[in-house]
Amino acid sequence: MSAKYERELRTILEANGFLVIRSAGSFGIDLISYKDQQIYLFEQKDSRADTLYNSNPRLKAQYDELQKIYFDHQITPIYAIRFIDNTNTSKEKKWRLYTPNYASFKAPIFRKESGTTLHDWLINR
Question: Which domains does the chain show, CATH number per domain?
């Protein structure tokens, strides 16, 4: 399902004036976007649960790679999580964005209620 949601996120970002490159099959950054002299790196996840744990070895290794990007290049990768449900809310509101504390060496836990909606993030860009 991830490729479907990567394309969905890409379409939303492009509709809001971002230049977006999809990095298919990557193990780290799924979308690279650019707007107003700013680069945004997105790692996309999807979940049917209201909480996504980033503790399994594969996800932890991926998080470590994103943390390396943060320290080596001073670019903050953003986790874009598509929470899958059957509500009739807009697609933009089903997405939550998270910027983990990369200075912490603990793998983050993403809770649906704590993320910023994509809709709100786009408004504040």
Answer: 2-123 (3.40.1350.10)
